[in-house]
Design goal:
8 copies of one chain form a homooctamer. Chain A has a 5-stranded parallel sheet with strand order 6-5-7-8-9, sandwiched between helices. Chain A has a 4-stranded mixed sheet with strand order 1-2-4-3, sandwiched between helices. The first copy, chain A, contains 12 helices and 9 strands. The first copy, chain A, is elongated, with a radius of gyration of 22 Å. In chain A, helix 5 packs across helix 6 and helix 7 packs parallel to helix 12. The relative contact order of chain A is 0.11. By secondary structure, chain A is an alpha/beta fold. The two termini of chain A are 23 Å apart. At the C-D interface, helix 4, strand 9 and helix 12 of C face helix 4, strand 9 and helix 12 of D.
Chain lengths: 255, 255, 255, 255, 255, 255, 255, 255
Amino acid sequence: MTREAILKLLQEVASGAASPDAALGRLAHLPYEDAGFAKIDHHRSLRLGLPEVIYAAGKTAAQVAAIFARMAETGSAVLATRATAEHAAAVREVCPVAEYHAEASIIGLPAASPAEKHGPLAVVCAGTSDMPVAEEAAVTAEYLGCAVDRIYDAGVAGLHRILAQQETLRSARAVIVCAGMEGALPSVVGGLAAAPVIAVPTSIGYGAAFGGLAALLGMLNSCSPNVCVVNIDNGFGAAYVAAMMLKAGQRQNSE
Amino acid sequence: MTREAILKLLQEVASGAASPDAALGRLAHLPYEDAGFAKIDHHRSLRLGLPEVIYAAGKTAAQVAAIFARMAETGSAVLATRATAEHAAAVREVCPVAEYHAEASIIGLPAASPAEKHGPLAVVCAGTSDMPVAEEAAVTAEYLGCAVDRIYDAGVAGLHRILAQQETLRSARAVIVCAGMEGALPSVVGGLAAAPVIAVPTSIGYGAAFGGLAALLGMLNSCSPNVCVVNIDNGFGAAYVAAMMLKAGQRQNSE
Amino acid sequence: MTREAILKLLQEVASGAASPDAALGRLAHLPYEDAGFAKIDHHRSLRLGLPEVIYAAGKTAAQVAAIFARMAETGSAVLATRATAEHAAAVREVCPVAEYHAEASIIGLPAASPAEKHGPLAVVCAGTSDMPVAEEAAVTAEYLGCAVDRIYDAGVAGLHRILAQQETLRSARAVIVCAGMEGALPSVVGGLAAAPVIAVPTSIGYGAAFGGLAALLGMLNSCSPNVCVVNIDNGFGAAYVAAMMLKAGQRQNSE
Amino acid sequence: MTREAILKLLQEVASGAASPDAALGRLAHLPYEDAGFAKIDHHRSLRLGLPEVIYAAGKTAAQVAAIFARMAETGSAVLATRATAEHAAAVREVCPVAEYHAEASIIGLPAASPAEKHGPLAVVCAGTSDMPVAEEAAVTAEYLGCAVDRIYDAGVAGLHRILAQQETLRSARAVIVCAGMEGALPSVVGGLAAAPVIAVPTSIGYGAAFGGLAALLGMLNSCSPNVCVVNIDNGFGAAYVAAMMLKAGQRQNSE
Amino acid sequence: MTREAILKLLQEVASGAASPDAALGRLAHLPYEDAGFAKIDHHRSLRLGLPEVIYAAGKTAAQVAAIFARMAETGSAVLATRATAEHAAAVREVCPVAEYHAEASIIGLPAASPAEKHGPLAVVCAGTSDMPVAEEAAVTAEYLGCAVDRIYDAGVAGLHRILAQQETLRSARAVIVCAGMEGALPSVVGGLAAAPVIAVPTSIGYGAAFGGLAALLGMLNSCSPNVCVVNIDNGFGAAYVAAMMLKAGQRQNSE
Amino acid sequence: MTREAILKLLQEVASGAASPDAALGRLAHLPYEDAGFAKIDHHRSLRLGLPEVIYAAGKTAAQVAAIFARMAETGSAVLATRATAEHAAAVREVCPVAEYHAEASIIGLPAASPAEKHGPLAVVCAGTSDMPVAEEAAVTAEYLGCAVDRIYDAGVAGLHRILAQQETLRSARAVIVCAGMEGALPSVVGGLAAAPVIAVPTSIGYGAAFGGLAALLGMLNSCSPNVCVVNIDNGFGAAYVAAMMLKAGQRQNSE
Amino acid sequence: MTREAILKLLQEVASGAASPDAALGRLAHLPYEDAGFAKIDHHRSLRLGLPEVIYAAGKTAAQVAAIFARMAETGSAVLATRATAEHAAAVREVCPVAEYHAEASIIGLPAASPAEKHGPLAVVCAGTSDMPVAEEAAVTAEYLGCAVDRIYDAGVAGLHRILAQQETLRSARAVIVCAGMEGALPSVVGGLAAAPVIAVPTSIGYGAAFGGLAALLGMLNSCSPNVCVVNIDNGFGAAYVAAMMLKAGQRQNSE
Amino acid sequence: MTREAILKLLQEVASGAASPDAALGRLAHLPYEDAGFAKIDHHRSLRLGLPEVIYAAGKTAAQVAAIFARMAETGSAVLATRATAEHAAAVREVCPVAEYHAEASIIGLPAASPAEKHGPLAVVCAGTSDMPVAEEAAVTAEYLGCAVDRIYDAGVAGLHRILAQQETLRSARAVIVCAGMEGALPSVVGGLAAAPVIAVPTSIGYGAAFGGLAALLGMLNSCSPNVCVVNIDNGFGAAYVAAMMLKAGQRQNSE
């Protein structure tokens, strides 16, 4: 409820068009559904074009489909992450235009009126095993309105692969780097890019990789100062942070 | 070695001004001594106005002073982080205009021709004990060209303190949040801000705080999707990432 | 063996009704089988109305049913926690009035003569995934004689949800808060409530959540001083502590 | 701002006693700057008589003395925890009636008009090395208005020591148990008491005690269901939770 | 090769019955194939009557049966630990007198000529869930020639259960205590027994039990000085150490 | 209170020499202050000749001296472990016959009437840096009445050193092995000895030794089944367990 | 692009056969696709005869077969590690001469023209459970051109087994040691061998083995200075390092 | 005792020059004092020219000097690692030709007749803070007879620094890489070198570096297969392994 809506309501009360009791009813949820909070959420999603997101893991296909359908009615973009093919089938029955990105495990519905693309955002991954996480990041970012450059299978043991992509890295306005095992790639990319690097440790590896802990610690201790980190396998979160960066940049200039 | 330099060399070969053998010699170290690498570094610091940085911890006062003086000659901004009053005294003998920010433990020399400020960047901290880390972030960000709004002592146990700052958070284009103990503040701020949040766990706490580990894990698992994390007590790194974000945004629009 | 029983025995010895040797035999196990210990257990369950509890995990349906039936004969309340639908079916064959609470995974039989309700106790959880743990706490507390107010899906990333429940929190005489991921909610609730907060870390999350460790450490380091913690996913234990608090309060005043 | 206050405001608008604009102004900061927050804090400290607390560790003697003096002016009780003799000397210069409890490392100033005592609260510790933590708990609890029974040096390797105190444990309305090393005492006490047990792991021990981690894990896994846990060495927090329990109990009955 | 055998060889050389070169050949592998090593193993199993042991986990039923049959031919006792019913069926086809102890997961064949029993050894466990580990210890110890007293379900939350067994504990010459969760029982038993206590942490528990780590750390930090520890769930090892203790005691006196 | 004393009391009641009420008074504290508990402690120390022990670390010289003197009056052996030269000087002022073992950091007073020696007990250590822990074990064991064979500086990297001591190991009735770093020695000794091995991890090492954790884990996972483990650097505890083993052996045979 | 190719290109420019612009085009990717990098890879695999390697875990049988077939066309040796029988069947359909080593889980195709063998390399393992890792190492090493001596089931609890192999160890030019549980074997072997020891911790064990962590820490802290370590279960990596050592030695001498 | 010595002894027995009994006496300790073991040690140090090494940390200056002097008499090289200037002063009083390498903290005495140099060995470090560890490795390697190329301050955030050294890396026959923080450098170097890489994690870093744990885990999970790892800060061990590699290579070819 916006400031304007409240003022309008108060004016109705003043004019007798609304009784105090009826007004109270409409204000009832005010402290929590109040414009202050809703405004942020709303404002954010309206202006930044951020979609509604469903975390599908642990939900039944029917549950995901039901939530997806309800969200789709608002016209905003909708994402379901960690979604299986079974989830996708159920969603597409109720929402046939939704698309399933199998490698990213994402079901997506683009916004009705897509915004201009921001970027470019580079999404880099170290090995082919890291690709599902990288795709979660890349596909999410695309639904969040980013133009994405993918640089895959560019691990540090064969430096020529990442060096061959210097131009792309140099022109990126934000970079997401997904790597498991020793998690060294963000430090290398951090030195090549002129933009913030969001590092995503992946759970790829075995033994002393400890489910992504080795990569996580490596990234937190990066000697490149332009590296920040999100949770293990959290491609979605990295994309969300990156999209906010790019949009916050845009906002500044349009104000 | 730039593209132009290589073309010029090839033209000399074509014209006979250089023999193929001599040209080969000049190309020999090309893959690694190539300007391509230097260019990045140079380009970045020139265009983005990022200062030279000295990590003073573990260095003698004389060492810090000597390095500081050499860097100051280039006219760029210079920062020495984790610097003691003793370090500062030594630096100011050789570079009297340098300033010492005691709470931030930073010795700084502004760039000769300061760039326009970017931002606003909000720097938030949970308790007064977190202030040294928050100040390291805030002072660094200011030297990196950011306009900083400080919101200190706003821990989640007294929500009214952070809620009272909603307007500042809403208008920030990037937010840094420093917190020790349970590290809950970034999640709360993440829900109030419309910008990326860079979380800095601090080593404040005792017992099961394990030197910042509890806060670090908490921040990595934040339920707010716009939160990314840097190393424990790494206020400098958070400011560096934030400044890059803001400048990357600017760059995009000026291109 | 009570003080009175011992005195009676000694009087029998004095009167010759019992020989010293026979008396010794009856006193023989005194230090360990003494009523003193049984009395506590008995006294406690009688006065406080605490039910008998079966931890069903790892037991067969037949085993749980047999134990449940035997306990039910005593007329006290009976609880089986971590119980599956299969466990429930077996129990209800031998004890048809037992109820199965599927989300809480609890089979319960109310006490024959239910005591007056204590409370109110607020049970709060951060996300829908935390609901099974919250329900284990809430249902347990109800069988233990508490009046429970549920506040679900009130994570800190959307503060308006928990702020909307301030009145309920303020009037609660004890609060249980279940949260996974970063476990920040107890600190926030701790600042809003005027009662002790029992925090239950849940194993919800992935990657650096480390099966609930992140939430556990966060809660142990809460900046709200009125927070104490139980084991990961231990909704039962939290309810037990809360019920004892409320009953100990009652006891005091009735004495 | 209560529901009644809003209704009253709306009625004023309806009657013309307040203009819509003026009403908007009074509603403007409602969700976050609302008295609701201040009220809680105020209400809590007024009704429960909880003192102001200073965490002295890391503060200079002058700082502690200044804060202490300012708080003392309000007439409420004041506590400074983790305070050294040097802190105490400085405080007593500005506030001569303050008392220093050396073993508890607490400087305290009782409330001007002390409330009735609540309890009894039993404070138990396993070994003499745990006494500083136990004293922090006991002295804090006394300033918070509790009647405290101390049971010290009652480790489980000599059960007769704790068994000799059964009567005291049985009559306690809350119990705090401080133990280092293996942290087994809370489980044993949990079985003997008819009240909630707040366990405080201490950092006493060496080697695989890992600074209190062994005791902490032991207490979190207690087989006694009436045990909850606070941070390592956090005697203050245990006392705070216990005092809130006892006062919440009282509150209920006086309502 | 025994001292006697070497002397005999030297005498053959002295008498010319063996040439120095031939003798060298027979001595050649002496440092490593020497009877010294075999003697220990042999001597130990002969005198102490220790059985051959097969760790069945991870082996096929056929493999276990084959190894078991080969060992059984020697007439010594044979044990297969961590054995399933399927393993047992296969073994009993080739060795019908072997017995399967389902709760202990042990297949056993007593020695042809059983030795005199040593002991008594008390085997204690905290909860019914710890019984498989306790049974592994108890059954192993019996095959190793110990007289075993079982004290089960004697957790510290109900002290009367363990106190009722004081006499048995006092007369035991060695005690094995199996406990999961907080692992407090060995400390309590250590104070009641006049013999060494071998503590076995079990993996029983959840959450912060971390698969037995909590119990392991607790036991390593026991405040009872007569407690030593073996690996998590290692009932076999505890029994082996206990049997060696009892037999070493016997040996001394028979020498 | 012994069985005999209770019988005598009952006979006095029967004869009228004591009234039931008076008898009740004398029995009053029976369940917890009963001789049953004291008897164990007493019985144990009388029969097994175990000394009183003071943990000197963290106590002042004056405190240690005072406790030591009081214990010395009973005529039993007295030990102060982790004692400095300063502690020793203070003790020897009040108890001149006490001896200080500097390498073991132990102040000891032999029992007035020393018992027969038990053993032999072998104390082995891996490197010279482990000697303080080994000496704590060896000296403690000697005061506890054991005959000790020391085998020092016998690390596994030079196997000939430990192999040269096979005869001593083979004849030992119990073995204590102290080792830091990788903690491999107990496994090797376990294969050479025909007796239980009590392994003591030491905190010797650096980096991934993690203060003795590497050695501790190694020893807990020993492939020799006759190995049990005590806490890091706990030479005292190892000696205590070993002495109890040897005395329990003796007891059996003398009964 | 080789040095020769560049020279040839420059000569074409000199002769006018290529224009400077066209030459620039061909040189364009030089800094990163330059022969410098390819040369290393190529040179290395050509001279050292290292095979192409496929990590089969997580790939479908069809994927592995397709990659294998493509690599086999180059004539170099090909390895697929962590391969199942199903992978093997698929590979042998497209490449019938490939061999499947079931215990090592390796599918291998020898180089068309096998190089001279290097070595000898000793591969040692502690228990039969460690054999799959040891076989991964041994088979890999053989495909990499090493002559391998296997020493299996030589754990330190029965020293005679490893001592019997001293001659083999003494003559080895590199040694790989695979061990789980306490991981003590590399230290013992390190003392017996006159060559570098590459230690491979295995995940064999339970409880406090923590999936190989105990063995890993043990090996990192080895008291034998000639021990280095690879990841848990990484038999392949150990073989790769060993083969490089042996080939680097050869290279030196042939230069 | 060598094979030859045994044969000679047997010949004396055959000739009657020694009686069988006397010969037995001389053979008595054979299994453990046998030349087999000594031979290895001797053979190794003689042939490979490895020096005697003293770990000075924790030893007094007098102790180090005494041991150093005794070792120096044998004419072999002598090293004292982790030595302070004070240690060095004491050593040089008794052995004036010893040299102190301050940055490496090593006191060294070259062998009387230095062997031919092996190598080249490249020693690389990431930052200037890693130099003490790198120097420990480099200086040790030089005393062990290696020709060392130092490549310092070549962290991955500025790739041009390490790329500029490709030629040196390519020609090295073994490489040692020291790095703290995220420990990424060994993976990068592993891809550039054609030789085994021995990675040394350093304790440089703060926060989530956890004293070198992050670097250690990173290196263990390196995606370059030619990387093996030693303990944190163990420059000495890395040099020892490297020297053994180079010498084992030489040995092969000279045989």
